[in-house]
Structure to design on (148 residues):
């Protein structure tokens, strides 16, 4: 009913010691048994992106070294993409969301990253890194275009 995503680390011992993020395999059951009193659309969107990524890879981690990035996706022990999920990026959370993603991109020496949103589109390019805000429907249809 649930799946776990470990924190990224090259050491398996460190991965085992760190807390894991939990995602529902069946979002219908999750919605029926959740204890929150709000819809928590951000958490639901993050779970949806997780399920999408899980279909593509069994090597999914989160990054939490200097800010958090929701997903680090690997294939054959090689980082494929770093993905942040935020229902709506606004003035209150923009710095946190971008910083977490940037830190993971720098750590893994990637040039492009994506923040999956409910319906926002934008591109932040500082000449070194490119971060795209992408609506979920677009990301779920064609994530290969967005890979770093």
């Amino acid at each position: 009913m649930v799946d776990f995503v470990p924190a990224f680390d090259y050491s398996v011992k460190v991965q085992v010691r760190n807390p894991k993020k939990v995602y529902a395999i069946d979002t219908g059951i999750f919605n029926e048994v959740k204890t929150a009193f709000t819809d928590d659309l951000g958490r639901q969107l993050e779970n949806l992106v997780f399920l999408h990524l899980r279909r593509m890879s069994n090597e999914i981690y989160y990054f939490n070294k200097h800010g958090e990035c929701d997903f680090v996706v690997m294939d054959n022990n090689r980082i494929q993409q770093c993905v942040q999920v935020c229902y709506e990026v606004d003035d209150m959370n923009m710095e946190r969301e971008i910083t977490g993603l940037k830190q993971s991109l720098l750590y893994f020496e990637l040039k492009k990253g994506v923040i999956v949103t409910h319906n926002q589109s934008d591109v932040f390019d500082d000449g070194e890194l490119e971060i795209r805000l992408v609506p979920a429907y677009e990301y779920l249809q064609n994530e290969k275009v967005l890979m770093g």
About this structure: The beta strands are 2-5, 21-24, 59-64, 68-75, 78-85, 112-117, 122-125, 130-135.
